[in-house]
Design brief:
The protein is α/β, with parallel strands linked by helices. The chain is built from 18 helices and 16 strands.
């Protein structure tokens, strides 16, 4: 199996189930210097297998349903935020101040899609809150006079988001890189000795492994919402909660809130309402920077104490450890800091992966970790926690994501030189077998090349307009092929369980 072995092992899965997975290979999907297509396959495949495993457990099936990973569906889903259309309007991927900028000694990447992050960036640069159409020129001039590291420090101190561009070698020498590398890809464990989970049996098709489960979704952009969107696909009642004063970007809501309900709730003023939701929840998923929610009693330990048997899932940019453990971050920033943007760029300017693969990949792994925790609870109980970090997923990718050789450039390498595709996940060098023979052994099937995403797109009416969207990539025998509901208006649902 094309390195689904690594992800499935990280999730604590039974290796005997791996032959249940097959892959439809489509050349041209998620092309880049780093093995993004293989990472995407491994993450989606592990998630689908975890869903099939839980479904078989609840339905009393003698065999876990077969899983099919189609490169076309995966590539389309990994770019879902680019594929969504609202009444024919294309999405706004990044705001004008979210981009790479030249500095006096290199490059810096900023993220200012949210208004409060934009305001903090401008404050750190001693700039007024200029209109959107004039701010970029002023920001460019201010950054050109400063070093990249000084900008990184100043913007972080102001509560904004900016990171200096680094090579893989520079990142490897950073304390945060060492802290990240010391952690497993998926952190998972028990919080107490709560009794085994008793599931309501499932029958009929489609098979909804998470049917009847209640998921509190306290996540934003992008990995967390991808995880909870996947749990909603598999039948969970997912209730997304946002603070009234922090509106979500409309295009992201349109993309990532399929299958969910969206409600507004202030964790201070509406504390009783939150505790009532928690008392009936099965899973809590959080995606804010580490420690940000602890003051509200939302650490895994505090949640499990009030709700024994809970599964608590956490995702962050840099991990909850090391000198950057408390920092905010997004996929594009992690790519810049960890050397990915250098590897994917040219001698003239930084580049990017063909998708926000750190977000999407981590999101599917987070959903998979939740599903596996639920399965494990049905055998031996215990409240559970699972944790993932974009930076840890980045480390896996830049190490070849299991391919056995580090992919990237060092301090003395020609940054941006076209080195070809490098070692892909699961490639066998010098093994004396052909690619076709290897695919036969690993369950891979050749398909048509990936060109247009159209076969994996659909349209539906919704409370926010006519939507074009990417269909789910998670697929197993009996799996639902689409979400049961499109997103409605942001924050318009009541903060209660169905």
């Amino acid at each position: 199996m094309t390195d689904i072995k690594l992800t499935w092992s990280a999730l604590g899965g039974d290796p005997a189930l791996l032959p249940r997975v097959s892959t439809v290979v489509r050349e041209g999907a998620l092309q880049g210097r780093l093995p993004v297509r293989e990472l995407a396959r491994a993450c989606v495949g592990a998630c689908a297998l975890a869903g099939a495993e839980l479904g078989a457990r609840r339905a009393g099936l003698a065999e876990v349903p077969g899983v099919r990973v189609d490169d076309g569906a995966v590539a389309t889903a990994f770019t879902s935020e680019r594929q969504v259309l609202v009444d024919g309007r294309a999405p706004v991927a990044f705001a004008p101040l979210s981009r790479f900028w030249r500095t006096a000694d290199g490059w810096v990447r900023t993220h200012a899609n949210y208004r409060h992050h934009r305001a903090r960036l401008l404050k750190a640069l001693d700039l007024p809150a200029n209109p959107e159409d004039t701010a970029p020129a002023a920001v460019a001039a201010a950054l050109a006079e400063r070093s990249a590291l000084s900008v990184e420090d100043a913007v972080y101190a102001a509560g904004g988001l900016a990171v200096a561009l680094r090579t893989p070698g520079q990142w490897a020498a950073h304390e945060q890189a060492a802290a990240v590398a010391a952690r497993p890809l998926v952190e998972r464990g028990r919080l107490d000795g709560a009794r085994a989970r008793a599931f309501t049996p499932l029958d009929g098709t489609p098979l909804f492994p998470a049917a009847g489960l209640r998921v509190l979704d306290l996540t934003r952009v992008l990995a967390g919402p991808v995880a909870t969107r996947t749990l909603a696909l598999l039948g969970a009642d997912v209730l997304r909660l946002d603070a009234p004063h922090l509106p979500e970007l409309p295009d992201l809501h349109a993309d990532t809130d399929f299958g969910k309900r969206s409600a507004l709730l202030d964790l201070v003023a509406d504390r009783r309402a939150f505790e009532e939701l928690l008392a009936a929840a099965d899973v809590v998923v959080t995606g804010y920077r580490p420690g940000a929610l602890d003051r509200f009693g939302l650490s895994p330990e505090a949640l499990a104490e009030r709700r024994p048997g809970l599964v608590v899932a956490q995702v962050s940019a840099w991990g909850a450890y090391g000198p950057w453990g408390g920092r905010r971050g997004f996929d594009s920033l992690v790519q810049a800091a960890t050397g990915i943007a250098t590897v994917e760029g040219s001698a003239e300017r930084p580049g990017a992966l063909p998708a926000q693969a750190l977000d999407h990949g981590t999101g599917y792994l987070l959903a998979a970790a939740v599903l596996r925790a639920l399965t494990e609870q049905s055998y031996d109980g215990g409240s559970r926690y699972v944790r993932l970090a974009l930076a840890r997923t980045a480390a896996w990718l830049t190490e070849g994501a299991g391919g056995g050789r580090r992919v990237g450039v060092g301090e003395g390498d020609d940054v941006g030189a076209d080195e070809g595709d490098g070692v892909r996940m699961g490639e066998r060098e010098g093994k004396g077998i052909t690619k076709e023979e290897e695919r036969a052994v690993s369950g891979e099937m050749p398909g048509e090349a990936y060109g247009s995403p159209s076969p994996w797109l659909a349209e539906t009416d919704s409370g926010i307009g006519r939507l074009r969207y990417a269909l789910p990539a998670v697929s197993f025998d009996g799996c639902p092929g689409d979400w049961t509901r499109p997103p409605g208006a942001w924050g318009a649902d009541p903060a209660c369980w169905l």
